[in-house]
Amino acid sequence: MNYLLGAFKPACNVSITFSDGKNRKQVPMKKENGQTALVPLFQSQETLSGKVCIEPYQGKKVEHNGVKVELLGQIEMYFDRGNFYDFTSLVRELDVPGDIYERKTYPFEFPTVEMPYDTYNGVNVRLRYVLKVTVTRGYSGSIVEYQEFMVRNYAPPPPINNSIKMEVGIEDCLHIEFEYNKSKYHLKDVILGKIYFLLVRIKMKNMDLEIRRRESTGAGANTHVETETLAKFELMDGTPVRGESIPVRLFLAPYDLTPTHRNINNKFSVKYYLNLVLVDEEDRRYFKQQEITLYRLKADTSSV
Amino acid sequence: MRRLGGGVEDEEKWLAEGIAGIQHNAFFMHRALDANNLREVLKYSALMLSELRTSKLSPQRYYDLYMRAFDQLRQLEIFFKDESRHGLPVVDLYELVQHAGNILPRMYLLCTVGSVYIKSKQAPSKDVLKDLVEMCRGVQHPIRGLFLRSYLAQVSRDKLPEIGSDYEGDANTVMDAVEFVLQNFTEMNKLWVRIQHQGPGTVRERQEKERNELRDLVGKNLHVLGQIEGVDLDMYKETVLPRILEQVVNGKDELAQYYLMECIIQVFPDEYHLQTLETLLAACTQLMPTVDTKIVLTQLMDRLSNYAASSPDVLHEFLQVEAFAKLNNAIGKVIDTQLEMPIVGAMTLFVSLLTFALRVHPDRLDYVDQVLGACVVKLSSVPKLEDARAMKQVVALLSAPLEKYNDIVTALTLSNYPRVMDHLDDGTNKVMAMLIIQSIMKNNSCISTADKVEVLFELIKGLIKDLDGNATEELDEEDFQEEQNSVARLINMLDNEEPEEMIKIIYVVRKHIMTGGTRRLPFTIPPLVFSALRLVRQLESQSGDITGEDVQATPRRIFQILNQTIEVLSSVPRPELALRLYLQCAEAASDCDLEPVAYEFFTQAFILYEEEIADSKAQVTAIHLIVGTLQRINVFGVENRDTLTHKATGYSARLLKKPDQCRAVYACSHLFWVDDDDLDGIKDGERALLCLRRALRIANAAQQMANATRGSSGPVTLFVEILNKYIYFYEKGNPHITPSDIQSLIELINTEMQSDNNNGNTRRTHSDPFFTSTLRYIRFQKQKGGLIGDKYDLIKL
After folding, report:
1. Which region is the signal sequence (chain B) (predicted)?
2. Boundary of a domain, candidates A151, A186, A213
């Protein structure tokens, strides 16, 4: 849809290259058709510079009303298809109207761009950054080329990071106390903790720790909430006895997590929860959900 | 957890499925291993290990499954070890395997990598071990948890930081190794105990069986503890034992407590047990009431006994820690507290304690007596002992001192010994009494004082008399005879050089055996009589020492007792036996020059003959005995002797059968001709000849009677026998025997034999060679010449 819609074959090939393209880190990004492609990675306040190259097909001439490059930050709601909310939009005019007969290269630069949000690809919402080159033409339709890139922002370790500790239970049936060592974890962190069994009157099959992502989109009456379970990690097998404590050690690295996003541009939020689930022999589930905050640590430079 | 219904067949099916699953995934794992593809290796190994998550198998089959996975894990370990193959530092690998979502495969992998991690020495072994043992807590399912921890124990066994191992040193001490094993043990024990709380009570029995199958997994930890180098006594005392016992006691589980106590006792050195006896025993008293404490304690004592026996050097240690007192105390407590313990249990304990006391403190008889005393108290608290096994234990208890000291005398000094015996039933009492006697026999012990004899007979009274009047009980005749023969032998063993004491012994024995009743007396009186006669002879040989009136040990007194004693036999009635004993006594009295006594005995013998002995065969025997004895006795004056010989001859002639008469009569001839060197010996040749003639007449009569009844004169044996007597007396110089007497007798025999042959009786009888050899003797003597030869020359053949 965002690609070339013209009834005719395009008259030229438009390509976008970044000036530090060779050295810049590339990360995989899932595209709409399900394939993954490597795209360059940026963070806020970085300068995006590069070249736009327009190369007419042999023997053709491109007649245009001007060439421009835009840097767009867009939020796309899937239930509101086709509507983009651009929270960032920067434009550079590259050429005045005229004709292009042969390959022509335009340098461009967006210095210290403010890109406050991370690229996000959720169930109902997508936040993306894109460079858009438009060769404006009159009657035959404009030629448009996109170059996606990814933005990840880093956060410093939170100054206050309390543990999560709580006692829960069902009267005369099950009482447990659980403790997670922090409430805020970075994406490659490891969750350490313990589950104490204070009272056990049911026979248990197992106990899992789940990481759940809650994505809410829209506002007011139009709010859509989608919850996904990203990790299901078995902590315990069998029934413990009173006084038993079960260790928790969950590495976050293997899971496809993002930082917690709160109220991004009034459009959506992404929150993470640890869900402790006990399953008894009759397959009844007892659970307790606790929110954790995820953040991306600066030192975290390894690829996902 | 929950068993789905179904039996063995289903289980077989599930096992087969599990094995197939393991093999399937192992195949892909191996392919990945060959390709050094870490990610795939982890994926398939986790899948393979997922088969172990089953809840459907019994422990035995689960073990089968586990072993298959175990084999595969060895391959995996080799792969993990080789960093060049997977390209990851082991520490990263340690994290990577923890990404597995299911806990069981995750933990197996973690343990496997952990073992590699320790081996790489990139981290202190104690930290890794601690982490592993802690993380294993996640598996709370008893069977899966047990096997997982068992796997952990196995892979870590050679990587403990014990003394002398590669992993010891710096921050890693043997204490860490101990701590690790103890913790793993603790957790395994908890899991193991917990099995019983799984599922409904209906499957209780099966669960117990399954738990029993699993116990060695738990016990293995204790074995490891026992083998860790560097666990010294202090550490054992302060840390290891208290921690183990805490688990044992707090587990509150019968099966576990029993097994683990057993393990502790078997696994750790004797020396440690000795030094921690108090702690160990205290734990024993805290076990569940249903635990078979006795076996535990028994094993402990057996071990300690063996330890003490192994080397005399360690004995002082036992004294130092007052081992006996502590054990005694503990056993008392156990018996007191465990009221429902069967009596056999208590007895077993006493046996062990006694064995212990005997081995460790052989010099402390008071200990032995103490144990027996406690035993008496326990036995008194219950009604009559009826449990056969308990009885057996009591017998063992009583036999132990006998075996140890090889000397009944020692046992006799134990005041509680007879009191224990009182609690046995009759049969067992007899068995025990037999054992005592056998012990005496075997060791040739001499019981030499009347007091001891008194005690001894008190002990074996089961054999001496019928107890509680239940004599109606049918006894095996053979057994009875054997018992009584033993008693008889025992009586013969009693001896004392000192006559005064000996007579007391005899009194005591007599007192006891007289209570024995008619069936026993024939067995017991003879040895008593002979024992007394032995004393008489002893006194006789040292005659002259007898002084004073109050002396008990005079032959005269002894004979009085004997007379009374033997009298009892005649009323039993065993007249033949009594007669023999009278004759023996008479002979002894004769040796002592006590004519009236001897006469009295003979009188008794004759009376018996007349009144009690009616059987003709018995009469024949009796006559010959009487004649034989009378012939030897030389104490009688002429008058007494005449009376007696007259009587004897008279009896002889009145025997029923002619041949018997004949033989008895010619035997009587010896009464008149006693051939000894004594000059004043009786040499009444005329009356001897008279006897022979009378015998001849009887023989003749017998011959005729035979002729009349059977038409043949029968054998001439009697004549040949008489001929021999003639020759005897002739040779001895009886002047009334002439060569012509002999010659005519020979002719007579010849004639008889001839006529016998003429009658067509060609059968050669046995008298024929007898006669022939008699003639040969005569010829031989003729040829010899000399004085005898001259004499024989007068006989013409």
Report:
1. none
2. A151
